[in-house]
């Protein structure tokens, strides 16, 4: 049942699905087509905010009758999600979806069962890659030891990304999870004032889960619900890589303070230098942007100080 099927005054919907598109015409149809089976008997709405696509995304969406489309300027992913929530009818939970994701049948009712457990604010499902392999979406909180992303060590003290297959077999609390598919309790979302729009792109889901935990809301992973995420839907370039690295520093600074953040920043510079020497081309312009704030993507608002605010 969609929002249009509900009679006025019948109470909030079960779930409001929100999507932000940006040149997403290759993928968003697959997402929207997967939703009816994914929601089962739940009542739901779908609002898509388009962040100024230059392809035919808006025209494609306008031909559909299963979603509300909100054209917007590109104020960032977090701002787009927050606007989609504001444009949605009242619902008990918010389903945040990347346009390059799809959901398995009955996945949302299963996620909602987990969300309704006391103290739970956010639920992440089991996600697979396009080729069917497990996508390791569970993450540990940021620390100085984890700045290098040394997942290959298999040691939690050095690895933010959790790649242990056994961790994906049972339901449990996590520090945070990749935000391609997240179900968020509406009360939790409102208490946190939504996503922090200052991140523009990347780290907003990390920040949301960590702030939720600070406020007493757990982020839960459940393998009982599933979906697929292609990845790279927002485009992969030196600019997006730079946003990733700067926002990691920015998030750490806000949580750990300036002193430790300078160490984190210095280690990030060394990490990018190492990656560049190993052949990762995007690391060289990112390294320059780290050391010269004027070269940073202007939409981040991180051009005025060496250590991003």
TrEMBL record:
InterPro entries: Glyco_trans_2-like, Nucleotide-diphossugar_trans. The keyword Magnesium does not apply. Pfam families: Glycos_transf_2 (PF00535). Residues 18-134 form the Glycosyltransferase 2-like domain. Keywords: Transferase. It comes from the Bacteria. Signal peptide: none annotated. One of its GO terms (molecular function) is transferase activity. This is GT2 family glycosyltransferase.
